Amino acid sequence: MLKIIRTADYAAMSRQAANIISAQVIQKPDCVLGLATGSSPIGTYQQLIDWYNKGDVDFSQVRTVNLDEYLALPRENDQSYYYFMHDNFFDHVNLPEGATNLPNGMAEDMAAECARYDALIESLGGVDLQLLGLGHDGHIGFNKPCGEFPKGPHVVDLAEETIEANKRFFASKDDVPRQAVTMGIGTIMAARKVVLVVSGADKAEIVKKAFFGPVTPQVPASILQMHPDVTVVADEAALSAL
Ligand code: GLP
């Protein structure tokens, strides 16, 4: 079932999403959280850090698995998702060393790395709550529009527009990674609960397509219409095309 929570703005969206995540952690202190990068969840992480500092939420037993990572970008690079997660969340709460996981985009054998990540998620007992953002073309994680929904972790070639959009973060366009490793749609759909945060008028059209249009791998997020427990937390601007 898909539920939409409408909020006034980005700050309220972030608070609502953080509320759902902290409720999950309170109900199941040793839960597995699936986490996302991008600008959409930053406010959610800030809110969780704030509540952690106030003593309202405790991450000491939580384990995390992230959706995706660039290929061939070392952890220390401030554009890596490893860096992003530490900078925006992990380093500010009491998640124990070793409790956080991301796919390793530096692995020599990426097929083996994808198999390792898949087995890791399985060994943790699957994802209790998966947090997602939404790309302008409907991508979730780095599952971009394609002919069929990919099942498990896999390597993708980044779309030219994604490379173009990201080049501002790098010294030159040549420095932008060409590939990424991402959880598959199957892994995301296997999460027991999904929370998708989306904000801004520039996402309004894709929100309409993804959640009110046909389910198609051409709009990867549309598959979430088939998930038993999805909450879309969206601000008014993101819902303005409905
Ligand atoms: C990237 C990430 C996605 C994210 C998307 C949207 O491609 N791999 O996980 O959801 O961008 O980013 P933003 O939230 O900044 O719009």
End-to-end separation: 18 Å
User: Are any ligands bound, and if so which?
Assistant: 2-amino-2-deoxy-6-O-phosphono-alpha-D-glucopyranose
Helical element count?
A: 7
The total number of structural domains is 1
Record the strand order, biggest sheet: 1-10-9-6-2-3-5
The level of helicity is 25-40%
- From the alpha-carbon coordinates, what is the Rg to the nearest angstrom? 17 Å
- Determine the mean pLDDT: 96
Shape category:
globular
Strand percent estimate: 15-25%
Give the SSE order as H and E letters: EHEHEEHEHEEHEHEHE
Structural classification: alpha/beta
The CATH topology is given as Rossmann fold
Mind summarizing the main beta sheet? 7 strands, parallel
Unreliable runs: none
Instruction: Please identify the oligomeric state.
Output: single chain
CATH hierarchy class name: Alpha Beta
